[in-house]
Amino acid sequence: MKLKHFLVPKKIQQWKAILREKGFKAMMKEMGWKVIALVIVFYLIRDTFLYIIIPFLIARGLLAD
């Protein structure tokens, strides 16, 4: 088993398999809107770190002297 497959949860592996085999419509029928909500939350958290928290910490470190 590859390390990549070891790190990815089983549920997400199942979702990826459904997406590859049956397509996006079938995945939406089986999983519902929680897939869309999960993607939105993931990008919201990621972008918050990239564009707000990291620059704030960098600026705070530079201006603290």
Give the CA-CA distance, first to last residue: 50 Å
Which structural class matches the secondary elements?
mainly alpha
| Backbone shape | elongated
Order of helices and strands: HHHH
- Give the mean pLDDT: 83
Number of domains: 2
Total count of strands: 0
User: What percent strand?
Assistant: under 5%
Largest sheet: none
Give the uncertain stretches in residue-range form: none
Radius of gyration computed on alpha carbons:
18 Å
The helical percent reads over 70%
Report the total helices: 4
Which features characterize this protein?
65 residues, mainly alpha, 2 domains, 86% helix
Give an overview in words.
This protein has 65 residues and is mostly helical. The chain folds into two domains: 1-31, no CATH class; 33-65. 86% of the residues lie in helices and 0% in strands. The chain has four helices and no strands. The protein has helices spanning 3-7, 10-22, 24-31, 34-63. Helix 2 (10-22) crosses helix 3. The longest helix has 30 residues, at 34-63. 0% of the residues are buried.
SSE blueprint:
Elements: H1 3-7, H2 10-22, H3 24-31, H4 34-63
Can you describe this structure in just a few lines?
The protein is an all-alpha fold. It has helices spanning 3-7, 10-22, 24-31, 34-63.
